[in-house]
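Sample log: Response regulator transcription factor.
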Amino acid sequence: MKILIVEDDLEAAAYLAKAFREAGIVCDHASDGESGLFMASENAYDVLVVDRMLPRRDGLSLITELRRKDIHTPVLILSALGQVDDRVTGLRAGGDDYLPKPYAFSELLARVEVLGRRKGAPEQDMVYRVGDLELDRLSHSVRRQGKEIPLQPREFRLLEYLMKNAGQVVTRTMLLENVWDYHFDPQTNVIDVHVSRLRSKIEKDFDPPLLRTIRGAGYMIKDDRTTDA
């Protein structure tokens, strides 16, 4: 997926770009409305993330002009203006989604992913499978080769998130926000400890290894015996 971030706060834009890239999304950045309009008109993007209050051209004007040009790239509006009337105004200007500030990056990422797959895949099943590892979200049980593996609640939540994103790199930022509900880095090794415990439970006495550490990026759960498309 390739997105354009139109944001005049350079520090915020840098944070977003880094977090999106960690999630495997290619990002371009425009720091004002006119530059954003030009880049969105001249390049193909899957999603535009547009701040509402911008120099040179505000976000709503940018969106309105894109729609006038018959450019219908999905747009998610970011704004400190979060009242119902503000959101309605943004959507009526041509926005596809509206996220008030402050927000959690995990929610922003989820909304961008939804907009980027408009034709979309069906919702995930209630049972996740990676190789011979199976997680049942309804019964809250985990089995490998038919043998039940008892997990602590946090370990279950960690494995559930990893399996939901099987075959993809899951970053530390994503784990902190989605498994621990942290929206900051606590500067501890809590993730490493839990991943180590989880790995010992789902891989001890089983082959092949499924949970890997991607150095400098995060973690991935994948069955190497599965042939990539």
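Observation: Confidence is low (pLDDT under 50) at residues 119-124.
Observation: The radius of gyration is 20 Å.
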